[in-house]
Amino acid sequence: MMSPREMDERRTALEERRRERRRMRRKRAIFYILCVLIGMALLIGTAYWSYNHQRALVGAKSNNDPTRLNVLVLGTDSGLGGGARTDTIILASIDIATGTIDALAIPRDTRVRIPGRSGYDRINAAHVYGGPELAVRTVENLLGIDVDYYVRIDYRGFETIVDTLGGVVIDVERPMRYVDRAQGLDIDLKPGVQLLSGKQALDYVRYRDGLGDVSLVDPEKMTFGGRVERQLKFARALANQAFSARAIFSAPKLFSQLRGTVATDMPARVAFDLLVALQELPSIEVRSAVLPGTGMTVDGASYWVVNEPLARELVNKRILHLPGMVRVEVLNGSGESGVASRAADLLRTKGFEVVGVRNADRFDYSTTTVIAQSDARLAAQVATALGASLPGGGTTALPAVSSGADVTVIIGKDFRI
Length: 417
Prior knowledge:
Blueprint (H helix, E strand, L loop, with lengths): L3 H25 L5 H16 L18 E9 L9 E10 L4 E6 L5 E2 L8 E2 L3 H18 L5 E6 L3 H7 L3 E5 L3 E5 L4 E5 L2 E5 L1 H9 L8 E4 L4 E3 L1 H16 L2 H5 L1 H8 L3 E3 L3 H12 L5 E6 L2 E6 L2 E6 L1 H13 L6 E6 L6 H11 L3 E7 L9 E4 L3 H11 L20 E5 L6
Parallel strand pairs: 1-6, 3-14, 17-18, 17-20
Antiparallel strand pairs: 1-2, 2-3, 4-5, 6-13, 7-10, 8-9, 11-12, 15-16, 19-20
Helix pairs in contact: 2-6, 2-8, 2-9, 4-5, 5-6
């Protein structure tokens, strides 16, 4: 039995651990909203410093669509050095032709396979293991798309940046009152439409309700709630502010503030041309979504488990502008009994429509190959799902065995499942 002194020491130690956990939660509160704010502010800043350069054509490094850029926004809470987990992961897909920006929030606890690592992990660990480059590869594998550039942001200076932009008008949906002395929080926001200052904006995105970061509110309608949804709402409002005339005049000050908190592999001339192209459009529409899934406990750990069919449909429609369901035919080119059926079952679980399972023209294919009947991006999705290879020449015309197939998969002797 412990003595009174030992009990006091234990209570003190427990309280200190609670304070540390609260401090860590405070840091992890930030910042899905930085998706559009910092990305767009970065473009404004680079445009200011590059205005006298010759305009360059906006072009993606790897996308087949020259009018669309996919930018991965990574928010960290410990500076720009390596080793920090990414508390914010948002894919911003920018359609230059229409002025539509699709912001897809990927919850930080999303269960994924990280390239080069064994087993499953949370997606926010990818940056720890391999920096933004590995984070990009992980997202590409998860979504079956190409990411053109990344923007990595630290949350320092957030209040100042919002104030420099002149604040942001937003409809606060409910009274938000929360005090936590250990975290230094004293949130007191009234409901209604109002202009939020930098501090108020920080309070708004940090406020935590009973839904946590993200929660599946309505499974039938795939409606989400929680802080992530609120932060995406704020991102849309702040993006509009970032494109305002006031923001253009604030560009020099913004750029000086961003230099210490933002890193990107996007060339300044590409950013400049992108800004000019978007400024010439009559309007900018920002649409947001959360990667479909459900919070689950797997092997004792909490994850956001992706609903792959719904995620595939969302990515195809919003990011790739492709049909929601990709039709696939699977051909057995290895001669192993049942291998094509196993591959077909795997594709179905990942949201693809299998329209035919048959034998190939021969059984001596050494390598599994994925071939597009129409759009090479469809083949890339299927190849990612199977861990297979694409033909060296990209899209290849191949007579479809099953009518209506978008992609043909020839299973070779290297396929293992």
